[in-house]
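Problem statement: downstream parser choked on a complex file, so we are re-checking the raw output for the cytidine-5'-monophosphate run. The parser issue turned out to be on our end (a line-ending mismatch), but while we're here, posting the original submission so the record is complete.
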Amino acid sequence: MSNYLIGVSGGIACYKTLTLCRLLMKAGHDVRVVMTENACKFVTPLAFETITRNRAYVGEFDAGLDPATIEHIDLAGWADEFVIAPATANTIAKIAHGIADNLLTSTILPYKKRLLIAPAMNVDMYANPITQENLKKVEAMGHMIIDPGTGEMACDAEGKGRMAEPEDIFQILTAEMPLKGVKVLVTAGPTAEPIDPVRYITNRSSGKMGAAIARKASEMGAEVKLIAGPVSINLNGLNVTSVTTAEEMLNAVRENLADTDMLIMAAAVADYKPAQYSEKKIKKNNEEMNVPLTRNPDILKTISAEKLEKQVFVGFAAESNDVKENALAKLQSKKLDLIVANDISRGDIGFESDENEVSLYFADGTNLESGKMHKSEVAKLIINRAFDIFRGK
Ligand code: C5P
């Protein structure tokens, strides 16, 4: 049983939200509704109260509310899932810009998790580039847009903009989420170690594997944080902390470590950095030039001392030779539960490719070959195996 907070903004699709509440109630969930004033013109709070057996919250400053609670903060903290259905163009624009001018939008601002947003509006309002830009912004914040349907509208227009059917929203909300409540920290991409203001040394890594792991874990219901080095791939919809150097990545991992169940270090961290950073651009006056390098901290080794019994650490090993031996040595020295090894001498997989083929070596001495598959499938395999270990601890 979960706590579902349903945010209702003012569109004719409000009547469908009654059905969504009914479906959630029948499935045994606790449902509360927060409505905008405009929503109340389409469907009364009483209708929602009768279905949810809870009061429907509307006014920010209603007299008679419990003085012991601060409604918008308490509601945001109470909700396991927060669904905005229908989400009007206006409410979506407010979410995109952090406006909090009614109880619904004031409740959205302190809510820390992913919102599920079901847009509902006229076809031209939906197609308007400003609405589309706002939807992209909201997605980039990590929220999920439940695509509107296409068809006849209340205004007699035809096209995209009808709110998704309540049965479909219900299905998305209650789909099997095996990783619900599990906190996953993923690192992705290379790190870059500056030599001077324009030059740096780095590793080859697109960040695709780490991003695929973060996305898959999120789809499976986990609370995911991604720490990404400089990458040019699309990270929309993910909760991302961007870093540049290995040291910054180490600090970001450390900051989040205590609040992590599974750490998946897919980043290709630079092993060395220039011993000295030159504030001024180095001039090309000499035929030869040497850049002295110094060792970067090994993130996994450094944090292994702080590893909690229940935590699962997954590392990666990109190897050009003796793949198995090297991977097993790293599994041990970095105190990992699982290491994912790939053979970088093969040009058809890994690096910028969308496909990968990996060997999984486990701390209990067993191993598994993935076969060649799409990176999202590899991601699923890694997450499932890491989760098996987590459950067994
Ligand atoms: O030792 P090697 O770099 O091959 O190990 C790879 C694994 O260790 C990866 O999971 C990588 O993210 C992690 N690593 C690290 N700190 C480093 C270098 C690599 O945590 N400085």
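For whoever reads this later: The radius of gyration is 25 Å.
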